[in-house]
Structures are given as structure tokens and as C-alpha cells.
Recover the amino acids of this structure.
């Protein structure tokens, strides 16, 4: 999925291993561009992931996420 | 380009976690601590304070703060973070001290430390994470638990008439004159979080500028303790908790404070001044004349309050002090000034004394009946037991112990007053142990007895006790 993201548009990314699947990022995303994976990570959580388009780089998901390293948002 | 990512004020790897997710916190999914940690780390980095910061972790879920923040770290006993923070700040005034505490820590066991640190206006920052429950211990009622809220210890909901009302720390502290900045923020939604970021940063800036005590209460969520999913927990926070814990600035004097107005530095004790004080204390017992102790004395003096038990111990310690020995005097007594039981432990040693307690005395003085029964068995084999036979009936084990039975109260009465029975005992003790010469003790007594009219009577009492043993 990452390779599809163009570098000149905003994007967010989730570390599938650090995410605990709390879904707070989904709740705050104004564009609803985050979804929950069907698969489990190695800690048995369903991690969030970026659906791949329309992120505005607002950063709200970053602050809503309780994990320091789980979400990264880039706004070029 | 703007990138939102993990702050450099965090460690790269969090050693707490085992397994593959080494960079994950130990917190439950949806826990508010992670959000607050991120905001603090961000502010530390933006204000360039990370290297100066000492983060005091409390007891509670956030006890592992030191696994996350790449700054100085300290872990305080339960509730004492503000007191520990006070010490760190006063001895390191350039340090940025963060006391990070939950509601079980700050609003329950640590209420006293919290209030008094605020009342002194310590130039530290307190981040108070209020999630209305004891999280770490398994969801018991906290002082901040809401009316009607179910917890492990309020399964039917908190009731006002039984459990009292949720306590509002920010409002309470805002009544004090000293604090500079007190605000309550929340992390219920994005708008709250943006305000919380500003408050956290402002609190740290106030401290960095030496403008005094800053306190930010963060209304947070505990999905696990509340038995809710993380998203519903945040909704409950917004819809229910904020009715009881309204957001806002309760005090802000930061614009009225000069820089470094609250910066205080307490020098370590000045040894020269301490020595002057100690010398004055030593000279109160007369000129030091080093003597040789036949053996260390570990004494227990026991009797009723009012018999002069504690004074007797004090006299012996002062005699030992004048003889150049290490001494300790440790009283133990009930609330009664007269009539209750009292005892004291006295050590005289040629070496430094590790503990002032005497569990197994080699000299026991007994001036009432209960003390004989209580303490005789503790005396070491071959030890000396001295009892006032006027008031104590019964005989100690003379095979095991060197027993001195002296009618001290009767002798004191003959000298002039029963009040000097303790000094009669002192004379007997010195005679029985040969710890000092009687002349040395008498000259010390002359120096330490404040009321000059009583000196002669005490000297006579001492001599009568001494002679009673020596002439026996």
C-alpha cells in the first residue's frame, strides 16, 4: 500500500505492530480515511490502516492515538 | 512540510515491553495516559527542556514513566511525588521537575503532599491525570469517582451519603494564594486535546521561567476500568465527567509574576554552622574528658511517666557524651504526661551507633512492676538489672542476671524528695557497671542540672545510690 502513496500529497501511516486497535483515530478522522484491518497483529489486535487516499494531513489522528509511535502523519 | 510523529523526548525503544512490539507502551488500548505522555514529550521537545527535566513517576498505571521519557527520572513512593519533586527542585533549581500523578495517587494517598507543595508555591509542574477510578489495582472507587459510577468497590454505584462526592482538586488548589497556574483540560475529543496541549506547554514554560507552581488536571479515560470500549469511554468522558469536572482556567497569575520570582535554592547544610551548633551542645555537658568504657552500654530504662525515666536516660547519655563516647537517647512514651508507662533506650559506645533502638539491653532499669515482666526476658545473659525495690515487688532471675535491688524511692525520700529516685538509680548503675568514676559523673551533673538549687540534692542522691551498690 505504501508504494501507492505519492510523496507530494498528505498521508498518514499506522504501525501495524504498535497499534492496539482502539479505533480512536477512526473516530476523529474528518475524512474517514482510516479503517480497521481484518487481520490480527502479533499482540492479537486488529490494527488500523490508511485506506490510501484523501488524507489532509490534519494530524488529529496522531493526537487521538495514545501510542507514541503508532501513527505518523506527513503533510508536505 | 509538517510531520506528526513520535517525539524525540521519548526513548526509541521502550524496554518495558517484551515481544515484538518493543516500541509500544504498557497501557491498555484507548488509555488516556498515552495521549498525555505524547503531549508532555512534545512540549518538552518544543521548549527544549528534555535534558533539564526530571520526571517523577507516581504509583499507579503511570509508574513506568521512566521507561518512556528520555530525561531524568525518579519514582516516588505512593502519593509523595510532590514532596520528592520539592526536594529535587530545591537541590537542583535549574531542573524542570514534572510530577505526573493519577487520581488515586494525587487525590487520595497524596492529598497532603499535593496541597502543601501547592501551598508553598514550589516551582514545579504537576500533571494530574484524572480518570475517576483506580486503574492499576483493578477499577476500585477513587476520590474522583462520579456519583452513580460503578466500580469494583461500589458495585451499585457511588453514593453521596455513603462515599461522599467526587473531589475537585483543581478548584481546591485554586483557593490557595501561592499557585501560579491551575487549569483543567480533557482529552475527550480533538478540540479538548488541542487545548490540553497548550495548557501542558504553558505549565512547563511557567516553571522554566521560574514563575512558580503550575498544575494541570487532565480529565482522562480508563476504558478497561470503566468497562467500555475506547470510543464510548471518550464519549462518556465528554458527556458525563465534564459535568462534574468542568474545564477551565481556575487560576493564572503567570502574567503578574517576575521571571525567577519563585526560584529558590537551598544550599546543603553548612558544616561550619552545624559544627558550631554541635560544639555548643557538647559544651553544655562540661569540658570533654575522654574516658574508657569497660564495655558498650545498651540500656533500657522503664517505669511510669513522671518518675524521671527519660531524664535518667538523658543524664547517662550526657555523661557518656562528656566522656567522648558516641551516644543515643531514644524515648518511647504514651500520650500521658504523668502516670502512663514510659521507657527510653540509651546507647553508649566507643563506635558509631547504627540504631538508637535497644531490643536486647545489657543494662535494664525497672521502676515499676509491669516493666519487670515486660523487659526482663529481653536482657542478655549476664546483663545487669537494677530495680527500685520500693515500688517493684518480686525478684529477677539472679542466676542469669546481675541483679541490683535498691530501695531508690525510699533513699530519695530520705535525701529530700522522691523525685530524685532516678538519680539514686543512676548512681547504682554507674557503680554496678563501673562505666565511669563517681567524681566524673558528679562534675557532669553539676554542669547539666539547670536549677542550681537542686544540684546538691542530686549529687547526694547519686552518691547514696553509688555507695549502696559498692558497700553491699
Amino acid at each position: 500500500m505504501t508504494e501507492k502513496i505519492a510523496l507530494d500529497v498528505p498521508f498518514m501511516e499506522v504501525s501495524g505492530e504498535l497499534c492496539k486497535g482502539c479505533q480512536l483515530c477512526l473516530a476523529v478522522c474528518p475524512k474517514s480515511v482510516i479503517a480497521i484491518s481484518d487481520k490480527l497483529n502479533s499482540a492479537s489486535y486488529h490494527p488500523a490502516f490508511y485506506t490510501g487516499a484523501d488524507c489532509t494531513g490534519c494530524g488529529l489522528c496522531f493526537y487521538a492515538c495514545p501510542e507514541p509511535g503508532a501513527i505518523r502523519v506527513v503533510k508536505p | 512540510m509538517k510531520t506528526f510523529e513520535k517525539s524525540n523526548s521519548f526513548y526509541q525503544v521502550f524496554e518495558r515491553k517484551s515481544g515484538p512490539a518493543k516500541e509500544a507502551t504498557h497501557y491498555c488500548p484507548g488509555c488516556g495516559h498515552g495521549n498525555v505522555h505524547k503531549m508532555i514529550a512534545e512540549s518538552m521537545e518544543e521548549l527544549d527542556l528534555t535534558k533539564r527535566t526530571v520526571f517523577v513517576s507516581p504509583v499507579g498505571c503511570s509508574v513506568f514513566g521512566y521507561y518512556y521519557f528520555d530525561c531524568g527520572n525518579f519514582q516516588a513512593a505512593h502519593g509523595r511525588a510532590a514532596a520528592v519533586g520539592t526536594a529535587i527542585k530545591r537541590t537542583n533549581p535549574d531542573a524542570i521537575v514534572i510530577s505526573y500523578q493519577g487520581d488515586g495517587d494525587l487525590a487520595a494517598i497524596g492529598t497532603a503532599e499535593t496541597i502543601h507543595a501547592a501551598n508553598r508555591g514550589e516551582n514545579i509542574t504537576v500533571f494530574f491525570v484524572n480518570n475517576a477510578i483506580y486503574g492499576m489495582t483493578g477499577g476500585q472507587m477513587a476520590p474522583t469517582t462520579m456519583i452513580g459510577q460503578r466500580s469494583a468497590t461500589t458495585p451499585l454505584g457511588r453514593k453521596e451519603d455513603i462515599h461522599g462526592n467526587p473531589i475537585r482538586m483543581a478548584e481546591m488548589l485554586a483557593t490557595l494564594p501561592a499557585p501560579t497556574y491551575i487549569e483543567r483540560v480533557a482529552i475527550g475529543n480533538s478540540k479538548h486535546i488541542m487545548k490540553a496541549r497548550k495548557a501542558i506547554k504553558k505549565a512547563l514554560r511557567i516553571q522554566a521561567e521560574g514563575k512558580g507552581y503550575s498544575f494541570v488536571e487532565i480529565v482522562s479515560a480508563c476504558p478497561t476500568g470503566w468497562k467500555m470500549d475506547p470510543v464510548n469511554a471518550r464519549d462518556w468522558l465528554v458527556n458525563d465527567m465534564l459535568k462534574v469536572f468542568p474545564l477551565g482556567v481556575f487560576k493564572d497569575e503567570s502574567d503578574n509574576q517576575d521571571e525567577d520570582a519563585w526560584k529558590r535554592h537551598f544550599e546543603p547544610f553548612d558544616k561550619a554552622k552545624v559544627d558550631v551548633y554541635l560544639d555548643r551542645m557538647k559544651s553544655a555537658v562540661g569540658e570533654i574528658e575522654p574516658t574508657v568504657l569497660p564495655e558498650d552500654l545498651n540500656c533500657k530504662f522503664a517505669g511510669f511517666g513522671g518518675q524521671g525515666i527519660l531524664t535518667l536516660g538523658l543524664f547517662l547519655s550526657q555523661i557518656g557524651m562528656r566522656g567522648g563516647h558516641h551516644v543515643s537517647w531514644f524515648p518511647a512514651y504514651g500520650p500521658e504526661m504523668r502516670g502512663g508507662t514510659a521507657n527510653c533506650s540509651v546507647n553508649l559506645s566507643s563506635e558509631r551507633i547504627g540504631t538508637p533502638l535497644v531490643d536486647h539491653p545489657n543494662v535494664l532499669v525497672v521502676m515499676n512492676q509491669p516493666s519487670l515482666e515486660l523487659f526482663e526476658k529481653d536482657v542478655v545473659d549476664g546483663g545487669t538489672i537494677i530495680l527500685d525495690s520500693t515500688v517493684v515487688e518480686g525478684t529477677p532471675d539472679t542466676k542469669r542476671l546481675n541483679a541490683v535491688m535498691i530501695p531508690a524511692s525510699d533513699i530519695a525520700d530520705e535525701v529530700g524528695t522522691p523525685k530524685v529516685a532516678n538519680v539514686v538509680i543512676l548512681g547504682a548503675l554507674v557503680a554496678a557497671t563501673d562505666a565511669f568514676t563517681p567524681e566524673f559523673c558528679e562534675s557532669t551533673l553539676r554542669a547539666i542540672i539547670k536549677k542550681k538549687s537542686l544540684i546538691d540534692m542530686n549529687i547526694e542522691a547519686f552518691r547514696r545510690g553509688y555507695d549502696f551498690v559498692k558497700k553491699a
Chain A has a mean pLDDT of 92. Strands of chain A lie at 11-14, 34-36, 48-50, 71-75. The two ends of chain A are 19 Å apart (CA to CA). Residues 20 and 45 of chain A are 5 Å apart (CA to CA).
